[in-house]
């Protein structure tokens, strides 16, 4: 059943984002970032979003401990960053040192130069099957001029050119 579901879900296009958190071990803050495509808006008032991670995710462990995370919504020109942060933790940390970023003012999490970004604080979680859905309250956010998004579809990255037609 899992392979059948994966095959069907390959036909559902999703946006791509990079999520960041940190751990404080031995008095040293160590940032980590990971590429995800499970971002969902849950509520506008209060502003809540959700993300899903595997139950055994080291990133999830750090996120739970820090209680904060950042989301950088990637544009079409960011495929290299999406690929870099889809690797193992050691490779992701090495890539972070080479990627332009800044720390969020409210949470101290890493934010990339992206189409949109949010800083979140932990609100709740729900274990569902082999994943954990974490829900965060958005405490700061921002966006840049609209650029075509980075899309994940059929196992690969794609870009989408935006048309500037206005609705009546």
From TrEMBL:
InterPro entries: Flavin_Rdtase-like_dom, NADH-dep_flavin_reductase, Split_barrel_FMN-bd. SMART domains: Flavin_Reduct. Keywords: Oxidoreductase. Residues 9-159 form the Flavin reductase like domain. The keyword Kinase does not apply. Pfam families: Flavin_Reduct (PF01613). The keyword Transcription regulation does not apply. PANTHER family: FLAVIN REDUCTASE, FMN REDUCTASE (NADH) RUTF. This is Flavin reductase like domain-containing protein. It comes from Kitasatospora kazusensis.
């Amino acid at each position: 059943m899992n392979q059948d579901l994966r095959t069907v879900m390959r036909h559902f296009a999703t946006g791509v984002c990079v999520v960041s958190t940190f751990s404080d071990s031995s008095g040293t803050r160590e940032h980590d970032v990971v590429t995800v495509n499970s971002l969902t808006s849950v509520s506008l008032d209060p502003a809540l979003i959700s993300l899903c991670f595997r139950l055994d995710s080291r990133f999830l462990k750090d996120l739970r401990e820090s209680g904060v995370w950042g989301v950088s919504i990637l544009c079409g020109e960011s495929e290299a960053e999406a690929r870099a942060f889809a690797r193992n933790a050691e490779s992701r940390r090495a890539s972070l040192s080479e990627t332009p970023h800044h720390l969020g003012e409210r949470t101290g999490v890493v934010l990339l130069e992206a189409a949109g970004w949010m800083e979140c604080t932990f609100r709740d979680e729900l274990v569902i099957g082999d994943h954990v859905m974490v829900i965060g309250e958005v405490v700061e956010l921002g966006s840049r001029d609209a650029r075509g998004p980075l899309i994940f579809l059929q196992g690969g990255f794609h870009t989408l050119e935006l048309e500037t037609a206005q609705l009546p």
